[in-house]
Structure formats: structure tokens, C-alpha cells
Design brief:
Layout (H helix, E strand, L loop, with lengths): L11 E15 L4 H9 L6 E9 L3 E9 L5 H10 L3 E14 L7
Antiparallel strand pairs: 1-3, 1-4, 2-3
Amino acid sequence: MNQNSADSSDGFVPNVCRLQLDVLKPHKPNAYDFSLALSKLDPAWNFIIEVLEIDENTETICLEVTGNFIDLEKLQTEIIELGATVHSIDAVETRGESSSLTNHA
């Protein structure tokens, strides 16, 4: 279920405001270009990439995304299109938002 469309009976919708992902990616695009490509998904999302390990063909990175109403499905689709895979979701921060105060698609 997409958190952007999830309404609970008490008038709150979940707001995913931080994700930390363990991602395996090829050397190209490099971390800088990978971050730029992801930043096009939503101007309100911020990306921090830390390269944790480099081997002959791949890099393991820690990808931290902060913002409001982070759409994991949309994010994973772009990560796959860039030739990478999500190994794990290592941290998640959420908060409830009043559905009357949220105005997102």
C-alpha cells in the first residue's frame, strides 16, 4: 500500500519522513550521479549516500532519504532503473499526520 493514499479511521495518515537503505550498485553511476538521479524523484526529499564497501564490480552504499511522505515503491523503482538493488531497509522514521492537514498526491 502506498503511504500517500493510506487513511486510517482516526483521521491520520502515516508520513514516512526518513529511510535508511542498504543498496548494492554498480560503479557507474558514481555516488554523486546516483544521488542526483534520485533527487529528481521529489524536490522535497534529501539524499545522503555513504559508500561502505567497494569491490571489483559493485559498491555497497548506505542511502539515507529524509523528507515528507517518502514513497518507498517509487524510490525502489528508480534504484532498480539505475542498475542497483535494495538489500535491506535498515531504519525507518514515521509520524502521523492529520489527514485534514495533509495535501499531497
